Amino acid sequence: MSKTVIEHVLSRLNEIGICDIFGVAGDYAFPIEDAVCESKNMRWIGNCNELNASYAADGYARTKGAAALSTTFGVGELSALNGIAGSYAENLAIFHLVGMPASGVQKKHRLVHHSLGNGDFDVFYQMSQHLSCAHAILTPENCIAETERLITTALHERRPVYLGFPSDYAVMPVIADENTETITIHKSNDESLSAAVTAIIEKLNSSSQACVIPGILTARLGLADDVQTIINKTGLPYATMFMDKAILSESNPSYMGIYNGQLMNHAVAEFVENCDCILGIGAVLTDFNSGSFTATVKVENWINILADHVKIGSAVYPQVYMKDVLSELKRLAPSLNHRGITAQGLGEPIQNQQGKITAAYLYPRLEKMFKKDDIIITETGTASMGLGFALLPENAQVYNQTLWGSIGWATPAAFGAAIAAPQRRVILVTGEGSHQLTVQEISQFARFGLKPIIFVLNNDGYLIERLLCKNPEAYYNDIAQWNYAQLSAALGCTNWYCQRVTDCNELDAAIKAAELSDNAAYIEIVMDRYAASELAQKLGDSIASLYSF
C-alpha cells in the first residue's frame, strides 16, 4: 500500500535527520499531527504557542542542521512567522508544514474559521513566500517531485521552505509519476571555479601577513570541518566575528579571538586590519559583526568565499559554490605558517567591595563553568554581549541570534537544542525582559526530561534598550517584576534546583550546586539596573555609527 502524502513527506524528512516535529495542535493540521504520532520514527513536540515552536525549531536546526514545525492555517502559521523570518535571515533549514482547509472548501471559497472571512485561501501562502526559499501546496500528484525539490532547495540555501497540506490531500495515497524530473544539484562553473581558486592561492602566496575570518554560513552548510582543515594546512591564524562565535573551536592555538572592528578587542583588530590578505569564508560585516560599522578592512586585501560566489578585492567570480572552493583549497592551499596573537578570555572574576554581582564578576565566572561540548544559548542583548568574548573549551558552541535579534528567542531555542542533543549540557543565559516573552516554554524541558542550567539576569527592565535609547529611564523600558525563582515550580518543573542570588558569594555557591545537581537548575541573578558588559556599554556610546545612514 502506497504512503499518503503526509506519510511520504515525513519519511523523507526523517531520512535527512529530522526526528521531531515542533508545533501546536490545530484542526486543519490534524492529518499532519496524527501522522507524526502514528509514525515509529518521528516524535511530536507540542509547544506552548506557535512562535515558541518556530524558535524551538530554530534551535534544533542550529544543532542538527534542519528542523520541522507544524502549524494550522492562518492563525497558527502567522504566529510562527516571526520565528521563520529569523531562520531565513540566519540561514537555517526549517520545513514549515501548514495544515490547510480541504481542497473543496478552498475551491468553493467557503467562509470558514481561521480565514479572513472573504474566501481567500492564498493570502497567507503568498505572505510566507517572502520568507521561504521554496514553497508548494502538496497534492497526491505532485507530492514526490515537490518534496524532493523543497528538500534540495532548503538544504542548498539553508533557509525555510513552506509545505501546504489541504486536509483531504494530506491523507490521500501518493500517485507515483514516472516522468518525475531528477533534481539538479548545483555545481560550480569549472572555469570560474578554477579562476577563483587560482586567484585565492596567488593572493595567499604573495601575502606577508594573512589570517582567516570564518563566518556562520560555513557551519550552516556543514563545512566547518573543511575550514578547520584548511586553517590547519595553511597554518594561518583565525578570528571570528560576533555572529560567528565558536563555529570553529576556540581551543585551537591558531584562534586569536573575536574581531569586532574598533569597538572591542583592539589587539585582534590591529592584527586583522594590518593583514595584507584576509581570507573570509562566509563572513558578513553586519552592524554587530563590524563593531557598529567601525571595521576598516581594505577591499584590496579582502577575499570572501560566499555560498554561490567568490569576491577577491573588487573582482567577483559567479557560480562558484563554497563547497567546491573549499574542496580545492584543502588540496591546493599553501603552507604559510603566519603567526597570529594568543586569544584572551575574560580573566578572573572581579568582586567589588560590596560583593554585588557586576558584569566584571558574572561573565568571567560563567566562563569558568563552561565545559567541553556545552551548548550555550545567549539571548539578544546584554547576555550575549557579556559572553561574546569568553574563551570557550573544545567543541563548546554558542548560539545567538545576532542578525535577526528577536527578544524571547533564546528560551525556546534552548529547548529545541536540548531536544536535538539531549546528551549534551545546555546552558541558557537570558535577560528577564526577553525571558518574559517566552518563559512558559521552560515547562517543556521538564515534560521531556531535559536538564538545562538556566540563568535569568534581572536588571529591572530592558537594559540594552536603556543603553541605546534617548532617555534610559523612559517608562517603556520598565517591566513587571516577577518572582522568577518560583516560576519553574509553577510551570511543572518539579525537583529543579532553583535559587535567587543577589551577591557574588551566593552566585558562586549556586553555580557549584547547579553543577553538582542531578536535576535541572534555574537561577535568578539580581544585578543593578545598569550592570552591563563592556561591549553593551560601548554599543551605547557608538550610537552615531550603529544607526548611521
Question: Could you please describe the fold and organization of this structure?
Answer:
- This protein starts with a helix and ends with a helix.
- Helix 1 runs parallel beside helix 7 and helix 9 crosses helix 13.
- The mean pLDDT is 94.
- It is built from 23 helices and 19 strands.
- Strands 2-1-3-4-6-5 form a 6-stranded parallel β-sheet, with helices on both faces. It has a 6-stranded parallel β-sheet with strand order 15-14-16-17-19-18, sandwiched between helices. A 5-stranded mixed β-sheet has the order 7-10-11-12-13.
Quick summary:
This protein is α/β, with parallel strands linked by helices.
Keywords:
six-stranded parallel β-sheet, 549 residues, 19 strands, 17% strand, alpha/beta, globular, 38% helix
Write the topology of this structure:
Blueprint: H1 5-15, E1 20-23, H2 30-38, E2 43-46, H3 50-64, E3 66-72, H4 75-89, E4 93-100, H5 103-107, H6 123-129, E5 134-137, H7 143-157, E6 161-166, H8 167-170, H9 190-205, E7 210-214, H10 216-220, H11 224-234, E8 238-240, E9 255-258, H12 266-273, E10 277-281, E11 302-305, E12 309-312, E13 315-318, H13 322-332, H14 359-369, E14 375-378, H15 382-387, E15 397-399, H16 410-420, E16 426-431, H17 432-438, H18 442-447, E17 453-458, H19 463-468, H20 487-490, E18 497-501, H21 504-516, E19 521-526, H22 534-541, H23 543-546
Parallel strand pairs: 1-2, 1-3, 3-4, 4-6, 5-6, 7-10, 8-9, 10-11, 14-15, 14-16, 16-17, 17-19, 18-19
Antiparallel strand pairs: 11-12, 12-13
